[in-house]
Amino acid sequence: MSASQTRPLGIGVIGCGEIAQLMHLPIIHELPQSRIAALCDLSLSVLDSLGGHYGVTARYRDYRDLLGDPAVDAVVICTFDHAPVVRAAIEAGKHFIVEKPLVFTAQEARPLVAAAAASGLTALVGYMKLYDPGYRLALERIAAIGRPKMIQVHDFAGRFDRYQQLYTQVRGKDVDAAMIKAGQQEVAGRVTTMLGGRHAAYADLYMTLLMLGSHDLAVLRGAFGVAETVSYAQAVGPTHLMAVLGFADRVPALLEVAFGAQYEWWDEWMTVHGEADEVRIDFQNPYVRNAAATVRLREAAGEGPSERILPGTPETAFRRQWQHFIACIRGEAKPIAQLQGGLDDLELAERIIKALPAGALDEAAA
């Protein structure tokens, strides 16, 4: 085994906000196969705090400077606008995980997917649910039931503030708010242009699909491949969507995604109905460590029904994702969440939105 396969990989973290602080940084730090080689953020106070905490002296405010650091073997991209950073990472020859969504439109994703494939780099989208041990267990059970009669995916999530008491997070107040707003407006302009005048009113709904629902599109795709049809879509509200998708062999799927539910529970699940069996995956709050998805099986027991609960191995899906990423870089595994999947999900999100009636949201729904 070569020295490059035994020494810890140097990881650069680009964008040191919430998900980087809660998941990526502590996991990179604790895994023996990796080390935090460099940090990049717009906030000097965040860089100083995290750099001191993790003992990282290489601190950058420009991601291009971090990508030029020879001590960095790979990066995780946790910025708001991923496209320019992904492009620069490929040009710099750095392996990378990019948080979901891959980018904001399929049009800007296509050349990046092609460039990553041609580069030979390990390039993954951060769909951590694909590594959840409960989800992996459920895939085996789903494969055993044969052709599904129906698939249901429901994601109302829950309160996003409950997990914050579990962690210490550093928030920078030394970043130019006008610059941040300008970046958000530029992205909004790209999304509006992609949707076109007839569907521009659904921009918030599209962003809900990308920022929350993309995980649901990914787990659907991981189990059943890319959806072949979008036969129906309804905007229940500005951030509440229903859609009927069609998969291979004319298997239908009902997708419902909504942001803003103030539930005290995490409400995200996928149910697969077979001829004689049913498999349900209940996903856990992704910000809580060591909590895997739970699988519920309903099946025959002789001439009567039975129900079993199969808890997934207690584990953090983000940690499994990092272990897989490192194994892929070292040639020990084949990538699961490649960029092409991220592009497939962007194309499906666009098809769903454009299946909605043209024009503004209904006043009752809005």
Mean pLDDT: 95
Rg over CA atoms, rounded to whole Å, is 21 Å
Major beta-sheet overview:
8 strands, mixed
- Uncertain segments: none
Share in β-strands:
15-25%
Describe this structure in words.
The protein contains eleven helices and 14 strands. α5 runs parallel beside α6 and α9 (203-224) packs across α11 (339-354). β1 (9-14), α2 and β2 (34-40) form a beta-alpha-beta unit. It has an eight-stranded mixed beta sheet with strand order 8-9-10-7-11-12-13-14, with helices on one face. By secondary structure, it is an alpha/beta fold. The mean pLDDT is 95.
Secondary-structure topology with pairs:
Blueprint: H1 3-6, E1 9-14, H2 18-30, E2 34-40, H3 44-54, E3 59-60, H4 63-67, E4 74-77, H5 83-92, E5 95-98, H6 106-119, E6 123-125, H7 133-144, E7 150-157, H8 177-195, H9 203-224, E8 229-237, E9 240-247, E10 251-258, E11 267-273, E12 278-282, E13 294-301, E14 304-311, H10 317-329, H11 339-354
Question: What are the main properties of this structure?
Answer:
14 strands, 8-stranded mixed beta sheet, globular, 366 residues
Give the gist of this structure.
Helix content is 38%, strand content 24%. The chain has 366 residues and is an alpha/beta fold.
